[in-house]
Amino acid sequence: MQCESCGMPMGKPEDFGGRNMENKYCLHCTDRDGNLKSYDEVVEGMAAFFSKINRVPTDVAKKRAIEHMSGFPAWRDKK
Ligand SMILES: [Zn+2]
User: Fold this and answer.
1) How many whole angstroms from 2 Cα to the centroid of ligand 1?
2) Angle formed by the axes of helices 39-54 and 58-69, to 10°?
3) What are the pLDDT digits (tens) for 11-33?
């Protein structure tokens, strides 16, 4: 299983949105109830993550996040 929004591998219940193993999305891409966050929220979250692990400026990280996300089913119509 991988998140259909960001591609994160999901194995344990706590990896899934709302700790529901039926959820197509991971905990990072969903709110507390397991509902998919808005596109902008997911972009922001992922940009912050990329900027931290890759030590790149936020605007670069944001571009990468958008590119990365465009490959996943949740955002396919966002291109
Ligand atoms: Zn995700």
Assistant:
1) 8
2) 120
3) 999 999 999 999 999 999 999 99
pLDDT for 77 equals 83
Report d(CA 60, CA 76) in Å as an integer. 21
Query: Given pLDDT bands bounded at 50, 70 and 90, which one contains residue 79?
Result: low
CA of 74 to the centre of ligand 1 (A): 10
Ligand 1 ion: Cβ-proximal residues, 5 Å cutoff? 3, 5-6, 8, 26, 28-29
> Residue 18: CB partners within 8 Å, gap ≥ 6?
30, 32, 33, 34, 35
Question: Is the distance from CB of 75 to CB of 5 less than 8 angstroms?
Answer: yes
pTM confidence score: 0.89
Question: What count of other Cβ atoms lies within 10 Å of the Cβ of residue 55?
Answer: 8
